[in-house]
């Protein structure tokens, strides 16, 4: 329905009407009915001034950004309005704070406000009191509804019920997720490409799109979609609800203490160890995209042994016999480092020899730094898990105090926290590490990197190298240090 509005030029009576599409279908609160009731009220009061209509068709009262409400406020601020009428309070706003804020504006400009259904007028003290009481009661009822909805959602989550659209790799049957194998295999391939092949979000999206594999929405894959897949805890069997605040137009991630987390509630596509390794990888500082696609084997990995700056590629030699060199960027761009330049082909050969030596010497006794690094990372992961579990338990205590969950749910959360702390106290750091697994994983990745250097193009070989190598340092001539990454 389209409405024509008169220009407000002098002090007038404003009639504000609003309806949302679902509201009209459910309750029959039509715009025409509101207008007729307000005009009849004006006639009954003996007001001869022709009222001005402000009509918001299809707008929710939860949002204050409405075209005709904004136009009404502008007219109020210009001093063109003397009185505002609505059929009910919720036509103006369903939120008490917003309602009181609007009435404060009206009073600031000497504009009275009346709701004809609730029979009050802000020109009188009793009208203002009635307004605040009615608004407070309405706000209380909405909060109770929100709490009941939250309680029902928590119960559903604890029962393993999926509350939204199923993620890629699953189908929804009777509100429960079941694995859809054709998509689940794609999920496993994506995790493998990221973790074991060193391919980034963009590269993974490109591979899926080139293969003609569509997303859940039957669209091409984006970087964001790949990242969401790699960080979705549902794939390891964990149901997480209430992560995102949807009460505002911009969706923000809530503090993890507010999340509803239920472990081992869903069918597993990615084992927990692999999922945790991927999370560790996504939280690390990534190599710059330009360095990842560099046609030089150690671009983005090589560091100066004197100042720690990155080493970039350059060229040296005569006009007819030029060759690649790695140069310290601080020396090249600032002159603050005295490091010399190194022939790139020689450095890359030293690197290959160093990788081979590492492969030959890996063992629990002969390679203790490997275990030390893995142990340190494991301790950090355990500490983070305990912090998260404590925050989650604190949130459950608050929920139990508010009557949102049962004592049984609170006790289960407490037992999980106590078990996690007990395991961390009883086991030594080394015993928590699967040493044979770490050794096998490192050997396999080094071997894959060595094979890739001889067979694959440089960008693809570099992708495999960076799954096991964190950085490469040249302290001096023919001396090279390779720092491994243990995920």
UniProtKB/TrEMBL annotation:
GO terms for molecular function: DNA binding; DNA strand exchange activity. This is Putative DNA-invertase from lambdoid prophage Rac. The gene is pinR.
């Amino acid at each position: 329905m389209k409405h024509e509005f008169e220009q407000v030029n002098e002090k007038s009576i404003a009639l504000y009407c609003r309806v949302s599409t679902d509201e009209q279908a459910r309750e029959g609160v039509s715009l025409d009915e509101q207008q007729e009731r307000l005009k009849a009220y004006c006639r009954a009061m003996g007001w001869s001034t022709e009222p001005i209509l402000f009509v918001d068709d299809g707008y929710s009262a939860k949002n204050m950004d409405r075209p005709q409400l904004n136009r009404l406020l502008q007219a109020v601020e210009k001093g063109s309005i003397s009185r505002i009428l609505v059929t009910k309070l919720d036509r103006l706003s369903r939120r008490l704070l917003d309602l009181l804020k609007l009435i404060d504006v009206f009073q600031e400009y000497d504009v009275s406000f009346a709701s004809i259904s609730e029979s009050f007028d802000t020109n009188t003290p009793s009208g203002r009191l009635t307004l605040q009481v009615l608004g407070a009661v309405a706000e209380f009822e909405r909060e109770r509804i929100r709490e009941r909805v939250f309680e029902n959602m928590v119960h559903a989550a604890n029962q393993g019920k999926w509350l939204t659209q199923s993620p890629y790799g699953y189908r929804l049957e009777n509100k429960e997720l079941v694995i859809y194998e054709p998509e689940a295999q794609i999920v496993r391939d994506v995790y493998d490409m990221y973790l074991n092949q060193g391919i980034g979000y963009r590269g993974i999206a490109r591979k899926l799109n080139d293969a003609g594999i569509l997303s859940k929405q039957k669209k091409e894959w984006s970087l964001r979609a790949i990242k969401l897949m790699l960080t979705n805890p549902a794939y390891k069997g964990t149901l997480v609800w209430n992560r995102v605040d949807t009460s505002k137009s911009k969706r923000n991630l809530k503090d993890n203490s507010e999340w509803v987390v239920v472990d081992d509630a869903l069918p597993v596509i990615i084992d927990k160890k692999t999922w945790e390794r991927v999370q560790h990888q996504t939280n690390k500082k990534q190599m710059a995209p330009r360095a990842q696609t560099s046609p030089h084997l150690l671009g983005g990995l090589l560091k100066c042994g004197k100042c720690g700056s990155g080493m970039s590629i350059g060229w040296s030699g005569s006009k007819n016999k030029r060759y690649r060199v790695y140069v310290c960027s601080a020396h090249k761009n600032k002159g603050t480092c005295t490091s010399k330049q190194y022939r790139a082909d020689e450095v890359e050969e030293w690197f290959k020899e160093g990788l081979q030596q590492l492969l030959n010497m890996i063992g629990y006794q002969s390679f203790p730094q490997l275990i030390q690094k893995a142990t340190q990372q494991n301790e950090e992961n355990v500490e983070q898990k305990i912090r998260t579990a404590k925050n989650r338990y604190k949130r459950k205590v608050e929920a139990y105090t508010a009557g949102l969950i049962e004592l049984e749910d609170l006790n289960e959360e407490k037992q999980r926290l106590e078990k996690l702390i007990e395991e961390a106290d009883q086991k030594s750091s080394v015993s928590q590490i699967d040493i044979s697994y770490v050794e096998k994983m490192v050997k396999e990745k080094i071997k894959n990197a060595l094979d890739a250097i001889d067979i694959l193009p440089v960008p693809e070989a570099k992708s495999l190298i960076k799954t096991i190598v964190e950085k490469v340092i040249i302290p001096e001539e023919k001396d090279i240090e390779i720092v491994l990454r243990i995920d």
